[in-house]
Amino acid sequence: MEQPRPRYEEESFLIVVKRSWIYASVDFIFSMICWLYSVLVVIVVVSATVGSNNIFTRVMNSSFNMINQDIRLFIATALAVFLLFYALLFINHIYNKKRFGTLRRRRYPAPTSNAELKSLGLMDIEAIEKLQGEDYAVFETNPIVPLGGESVDQKDLYLDDHYRIN
């Protein structure tokens, strides 16, 4: 696992796409329609919650066959469900903290030593040192020992045994 690299320069995540003005105009129009709809819904919900009636909210209430009390009941139900989930998650958080501790023990593993690689038994120490010491290594035969000790013909393993180390 690699460690995260520091961000020295500001990286831009903005995606720039070349497209025609027709697509940009259609995209803008649909975006404005969605924003207008969102603003209208917020106005209806806020006015129903506060209890103010204007022409727009009366038209919306009659067109959707609802009254301000229906919207208040919906908001109260949504708030109650939110508080219930919040309380359950908070209780679960307290339980996990008591049961498992704070769990702030993460640290990166130490670099693997040649002795640890040798203890795996998959390569000779000379091949390990050659791979670690050179940028480009060429082997006559495959240096990796097959798992389980089964015998494998070296011709089958020879796949242009040039290993590029980055």
Write the layout of secondary structure elements.
Elements: H1 21-50, H2 55-63, H3 68-100, H4 114-120, H5 125-133, E1 136-138, H6 154-157, E2 162-164
The neighbouring-strand order within the major sheet is 1-2
End-to-end C-alpha gap? 16 Å
The helix/strand series, from N terminus to C terminus, equals: HHHHHEHE
Count helical runs: 6
Query: What is the strand tally?
Result: 2
What fraction, in percent, of the residue positions are helical?
55-70%
Sequence stretches where pLDDT stays below 50 over 5 or more residues? 154-161
Overall average pLDDT? 81
Note the main sheet.
2 strands, antiparallel
As a whole number of angstroms, the C-alpha radius of gyration is: 33 Å
The oligomerization state is: single chain
Instruction: Output the structural class.
Output: mainly alpha
Shape label? elongated
Query: Strand-residue fraction?
Result: under 5%
Explained architecture:
By secondary structure, the protein is mainly alpha-helical. The protein is 55% helix and 4% strand. The chain has six helices and two strands. A two-stranded antiparallel sheet has the order 1-2. Helix 1 (21-50) packs across helix 3 (68-100).
